[in-house]
Structure formats: C-alpha cells, structure tokens
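Morning F.,

Quick status update on the modeling queue. The single chain you submitted on Monday has been processed. Sequence for confirmation:
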Amino acid sequence: MKVSRRGMLTGAAAVGAAAVGAAGVVGLEGRSEAATTPVAQPRRDSVELTWFGTHAWQIRCGKTVVLTDPWLTRFKTGTFTPEGADPKTKLVIKPEVIDKHLSTADAILVHHGHYDHMADVPYVAKKTQATVLCTETHANLLRAMRTPDELLSPVRGGEYLPFDGFAVEVYPSLHSCSGKRHTYAYPGYRYDVPARPRVIEDLVEGGTLAFVITIGGLRILSLSTANFDPNALRDLQVDVVFAAPGGEPGITDRLLQTIKPVRKVIATHWDDFDKPLDEPGVPWTDLTPLRKSVQQRGAELVVLDHLQKVTL
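Structure tokens below.
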C-alpha cells in the first residue's frame, strides 16, 4: 500500500504535539504517605526538533542547538530513479539555502560520510563554529573540504562527551544495505587527507556512527540509516529514536527488540532528496513496514514534513 503525502501529513499533525514524558501514578495500594506525597519527576525542558529532510535535524533546547547531518543544499542526483545516482554528479553547496534556515549550533554530529549527510558540513561548521563529531575518515574528508581542523573531533564509539547544556554518547554503527549482495553505495575509508572531493562518489561512507543526545532531560537515539550494531545498543534506554525506512527485512523489529521499550519513533531519511526542501516531502519508499514495526512494539510513529517542527 502506498502511503500518500496527505496521509503522512495528517499523521504528523495528529501526533506532532504529543509530549514524550508521562506523569507517574501512585497506586492506592502503596504506603499510606504515598497518597499525600507527590512523586518527584525528573526535570524536563522543552526540546524542539526541526526536520530539514534526509537525516538533517536541528535539536534545540533554549539557546542550545545540536545538528545532525546538516545537508540542506539538495541537488539532482537521480538516486531514486530506475537508473540510480550518477557517481560523477558534481558536489554543490548553496549558502543561501543554508543561511535561510541555520544560524547557530553548538555541535554537529556526522553519522557517515555520504554526500547527503556531509556535503554541507564544512560550510555549516565554519558558519557556526560548532564542534564536529565524526570518524577519522570523515575528518580527513572535511579537512580536504577546507574545514578548520580545530573544529573537528574524531570519535570511534564508546565516548561520553559532556557539553554545556547537553551530552553526547557515541556508538559504533552500520550503514544500511540491500540487494542480492547486501551492499551500499560508495564504501571505503580515507586514512590521509585526500584531494578535495568534487563529485558525490568522493564522499565515501567512512564508517557509520550512532549518537545518543541527552538534552533537556530527553534522551534521543539518532540513527542515520536503517541499520545498527546490536552489540553496541543492547538494552539501551532512550526516550525517542530517529529511525529510517528501508534496509534489510525486519531491521526495525530487531532494533526495537534490542533497545529497551520506547514511546516514540520519529521517521527520518524517508524523502526523495532530489526534490526541493521548500516543497512537501515525497517518500522514496513505502513507510508501511516502518509504521507496522513501530506500532507492534506499542510505540508511536511520528512523521514530520520538510521544515516542520515538533516540541517534546
């Protein structure tokens, strides 16, 4: 069944304003003083999420801003046509598009090195002076793209990084794969600074990371593709998950069985990114499998459209 754009927007509107936290309830069978003593709740501040398509998210709490894979430029690649992407498609950066939507950031989280995740990072990093968390391959590619070295913080997975107003946990992860050979586009690593990337195939995957952002008392698991490392995420406790459609059959079921139960899953990377950011998102695949997997685990799927916000 094809999920229509109208249907997804209706779903997003219906769930977009729902809060993640729920108040605790004291049972009458508890100790006598429980009926008159309020249950202390963890302090929570409002966290606003804005989606810029693909896996480009702005996570804001007060004046604190965290960006994930901030790629806003978007240019025609043919990725979702029968012929697929032309690997020699030239990389393009559109400062006027980025400046329209992004003004500040404290951290940029790079999940993997592909163009639809990292091509705008040099401009955004220089504009905001944000700390860029990435693998060593990503850092070498970003250095080749003239990103100031002092902004780069290479990580591997296992790090706990406290910042002013938020914290980031880094986990090793995996890129989604598909097809008879279970492959993905543009694999590879760069152990030294290469020639400046000019076309999309120059931005290799370079290792994939997952991040948990703790901000405003909320814990968000950010996955950029439909895959993960089960050993890294086993029994992980979070409030919200960014999860992508696609990947191998049953991948979302396995993810939600691996981590502890969550109440909200937010769809990410579901749009055809050859289409403009200022137009409604067009799904590149049917979201029904993702929706069913989420609902079967008793969670709620939230689907935002381009430039839409939700406050949790």
